[in-house]
Structure to design on (146 residues):
């Protein structure tokens, strides 16, 4: 497996994002969809020449804080440590971009994601932004400093 950066118009990335959106809508309905802002940095995981996972980091309205978005691994590739590798690499990329803190959002119907984030050092925070009034939404943050 290797991880590399891709642009938002990359076809393999777009297919993964479409699959991620479909999974979120199946779990949460249309309110499960949220976008990624302009200027986001995308990473993909490639196994045997197949793009199997993605993640992005985007800027926020809080200085020094980036937001993890679109963490997704194709179902056939799950359970192989790909999500953990993507998360570690996006944290490294976020540090390179000048962020000293990351935040993210997941939902109550994603126990594997919750377990991953908590085991990687993310801690629950108060809901923020458009997520503040959404029941079943869990917000997390992690310091990247030191």
């Amino acid at each position: 497996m290797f991880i590399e950066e891709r642009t938002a118009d990359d076809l393999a990335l777009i297919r993964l994002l479409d699959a991620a959106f479909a999974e979120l809508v199946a779990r949460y309905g249309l309110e499960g969809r949220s976008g990624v802002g302009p200027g986001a940095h995308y990473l993909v995981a490639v196994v045997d020449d197949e793009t199997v996972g993605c993640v992005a980091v985007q800027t926020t309205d809080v200085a020094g804080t980036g937001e993890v978005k679109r963490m997704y691994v194709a179902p056939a590739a799950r359970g192989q440590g790909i999500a953990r590798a993507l998360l570690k690499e996006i944290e490294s990329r976020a540090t390179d971009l000048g962020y000293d803190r990351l935040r993210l959002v997941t939902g109550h119907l994603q126990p594997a994601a919750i377990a991953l984030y908590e085991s990687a050092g993310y801690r629950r925070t108060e809901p923020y932004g458009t997520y503040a009034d959404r029941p079943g939404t869990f917000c997390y943050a992690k310091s990247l400093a030191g």
